[in-house]
Amino acid sequence: MGSNTDAHTSAKEFHGVDYIKITILGFGLSALWACFHTIILQDIVPALVPEGLKHTYLGLLISAGAVIAMATQPIVGTISDRSGFAWGRRRPYILLGITLALLFLPGIGFCSSYAVLFIIYCLMQISTNTAQGPFQAFIPDLVPEGKRGRASGVRNLLNIVGGAVLIGVIGRFMGHYSAGEGSSWLWLSLGALAIVMLGVMLVTVLTVKERPGAGGRQLPLLPTLYKSFKIDIKANRDFTIFLVACLFIFAPWAALQTFALPFLKHVVGIPNPEAATADLIIVITVCILATVYPTGRLSDRVGRKPVMLPACLLSALGIVALFFSQSYTHILLCGALLGISGGAWMSSQWALAIDLVGKGEEARYLGLVNLVICGGGVLGRLPVGGAIDFFNALSPNLGYSVMFLFCFICFIVGSLLLLKIKEIK
């Protein structure tokens, strides 16, 4: 009786501003890594490595970060579940992780070699994912069941907006840096990101009110971690196919995010590729935001696959159109096409994941979806970066053609895999 009363009171007292408090950290994390992967590292890495291997080294760096994220988030998340700090299970790790990231961030401006950059970048990944693993538990911890869908929507919205807003600013700062106007523009970019990260961390730590007390079931740590990665493939055939489809469909998005700037610079010949890349990401983001809600509602009516399949095929068409782009306007139109398809995919993809997860293990199965997304990032960066450098050495800019072919094939394979999934009516 008391439990029902507490749940009712919690639902009644959870207001609009509370959605922002528990999700605002995602705004900062998305802004940080979107700016790093799309803009900042694109200008730093080529200055530290041989010209003919710059894409390989860039792909290696970002893929190492994805692997770190795949390992750190579930480990720290599990430790956080078992914690019993007086001021909550999650905020101590958020404070620790973001504080360490802010201490490592200035090191990017002092990097004199690729090895130093690699070490600092990996330390930043460990730090931010130490915060992100526990942060992701705020919604199931604090949000009443009837409001969790809304909270997830706010979280996704802030994640998308965080990347778009800061990329627009950092893209223009780093455009001056790449033009040889001094390192002050890099420091200005790093300072802007540090201010955002400090702000969202303080809002989270000071305003989120966790329930004090001991953590969850005190099972042995290593068996708990092992179980979190385990899946019965035969009993979860459709979910397994869905994971493989996600791997293929997220890989080209990672490749585009990482290698769009050098493509625009070397192939299309855009005068200010940093600003053009930022504008492309902004257009894609705006179209995602405009599409994600109506296509989500449409998928509730007609099913997930009738929305996801056209979205994948539209993404493949967008890849072809972008490959043949010859002007700034054409690039933005291709971005709009990719944004519309990306929004339709995102809304239906998460809904289909929820439809397919194992009963009573929703959080664990959705965590596996996150791991596959990170895996798609590795697939779209490490081998693709090496392929670009290898084929560019054979013929100028041939590597970018190979990259676009890879992206096109991935979208088609992902679509074919979706056809094999039986939707739950």
Structure description:
The two termini are 34 Å apart. The chain is an all-alpha fold. Helix 4 packs antiparallel against helix 9 (184-207), helix 12 (273-302) runs parallel beside helix 14 (328-356) and helix 13 runs antiparallel to helix 16 (398-419). It has helices at 2-13, 16-44, 54-81, 91-104, 107-110, 114-135, 138-142, 148-178, 184-207, 221-228, 237-268, 273-302, 305-323, 328-356, 362-394, 398-419. The radius of gyration is 21 Å and the shape is globular. It folds into two domains: 17-208, Growth Hormone, Chain: A, CATH 1.20.1250; 231-425, Up-down Bundle (Growth Hormone, Chain: A).
Notable traits:
0% strand, mainly alpha, disordered N terminus, 425 residues, Growth Hormone, Chain: A, 16 helices, globular
- Can you tell me the CATH topology of the largest domain? Growth Hormone, Chain: A
* Helix content percent band: over 70%
Structural class: mainly alpha
How big is the Rg?
A: 21 Å
Order of helices and strands: HHHHHHHHHHHHHHHH
Describe the SSE topology.
Layout: H1 2-13, H2 16-44, H3 54-81, H4 91-104, H5 107-110, H6 114-135, H7 138-142, H8 148-178, H9 184-207, H10 221-228, H11 237-268, H12 273-302, H13 305-323, H14 328-356, H15 362-394, H16 398-419
Helix pairs in contact: 2-8, 2-9, 2-11, 3-6, 3-10, 3-15, 4-6, 4-9, 8-9, 8-12, 11-12, 11-15, 11-16, 12-14, 13-14, 13-16, 15-16
